[in-house]
Amino acid sequence: MSAAYIVEAVRTxxxxxxxxxxxxxxxxxxxxxxxxxxxxxxxxxxxxxxVLMGCVTQGGEQAFAFGRNCVLASGLPDSVPSVTIDRxxxxxxxxxxxxxxxxxxxxxxxxxxxxxxSMTRVPMFSNMSVYEKMGIGTGPFAxxxxxxxxxxxxxQFTGAQMVADRHGLTREAMDRFALDSHRKAAAAIQSGAFDxxxxxxxxxxGAFAQDExxxxxxxxxxxxxxxxxxxxGTITAGNASQMTDGASGVLVASEAALKTHGLTxxxxxxxxxxxxxxxxxxxxxxxxxxxxLLARTGLSLADMDLYEVNEAFASIPMAWAKALEADPAKLNxxxxxxxxxxxxxxxxxxxxxxxxxxxxxxxxRYGLQTMCEGGGMANVMxxxxx
Length: 386
Description:
Layout: E1 4-11, E2 15-16, H1 26-41, E3 50-54, H2 66-73, E4 82-85, H3 91-104, E5 110-118, H4 126-134, H5 143-149, H6 156-166, H7 171-191, E6 201-203, E7 206-208, H8 220-224, E8 244-254, H9 255-261, E9 267-276, H10 286-297, E10 306-309, H11 315-324, H12 337-340, H13 347-362, E11 366-373, E12 377-385
């Protein structure tokens, strides 16, 4: 089987909801990343064989073949097709997995896996509420699902709290984790660690190129003063990810494409998988998913130089690290979604972009990335820096 390589990896800086990127149409956000990938690679845009675009809230400005609209807004020619993928928060990580499968199978040689989400212009869950407003249907959770699982709907907030309780994670511990996320992200910005991975976005106020949600003055007292999201709970807005606007993407190439186009790979895709479990607890699946992939590869977490575990809520990476006895010094070394934001469909390739650049900067070899996802699913991928 052929190998799949990542030859370029970029992301926009994260814009706060209703912040610096609020005036940018989501298709233009996606187009910015697509153009940057082909420009940095120095290839003819017409050689791209497909664009796989992750996006969670596919409605409004992110509707009607949204991935294709990102292509049409970009400098890529009309001959480049696209498809839009929804695996919830893992949408663009799944796009990368599909891209790798296409290249490894020999079906295609140059594929872009990307993700875009404007949580300002297309608010979370807005594609669900439109039917309620029209008085049509009963929503996405059929009565048969509600009866089977004994809940009227699946809630990520409830799931995050269940994970915290199950793994004995206190409010103070999660607040400290959140504070560390801001401190690591602030240090990364100040050191220029993100410079190579961020592509500027043109806005009415000029080029936007620095993550907007990082609190350089974050304190434990400030985070600890926030009210819990549910009565009596320990999950708060301070120890959860930020709603964010942004886009990200990677260019995946075959070995033949490397030779044909004179490309130098950043990383080789070593292994990947997807798993599913309890949809009520929902967000705990990265734990068994990671164990499953490591067992299949014969590798251990000790073989990993870095890992990126999405900080949808502090309880998720903390439970993952505790259950798998992971080295905290290798976890989300440049901060995570608590500080940098979680632009839903863009987060998969966003985390992969940061992981690859961090591996290169540290001279590391193996990196592991995993995402918790709505419905109780998780993607896991291991890459090898070149």
